[in-house]
Amino acid sequence: MNDLTGFQRDLLYVIAGGEEPHGLALKEELEEYYESEVHHGRLYPNLDTLVEKGLVDKGQLDQRTNYYSLTRRGRRELEARREWEDQYVDF
């Protein structure tokens, strides 16, 4: 998890919060958060990186649409990150 970019970590959180979201849904969520456009050339290579690292599974809804879900490893990594953050942020 410590070798991921902030954008990749944000992708993990958005994927975790959805029910197998597809790329366009992820793009829209991130654009709302960042308040700027997220280009396909940024989104999909980063999703592919998360798949290659074993943090995200990629499935196919139809011939044009893929969905994404966290792997067990991805969930463990997010949980560990949240525990680490909780050491420093106590609201």
TrEMBL record:
Ranges where the Transcription regulator PadR N-terminal domain occurs: 11-79
Keyword terms, alphabetized: DNA-binding
Record-linked Gene3D superfamilies: Winged helix-like DNA-binding domain superfamily/Winged helix DNA-binding domain (1.10.10.10)
One term of GO molecular function: DNA binding
InterPro entries per the UniProt record, alphabetical: Tscrpt_reg_PadR_N, WH-like_DNA-bd_sf, WH_DNA-bd_sf
Pfam families to which the protein is assigned, alphabetical: PadR
Protein name per Swiss-Prot or TrEMBL: PadR family transcriptional regulator
Organism of origin: Halarchaeum rubridurum
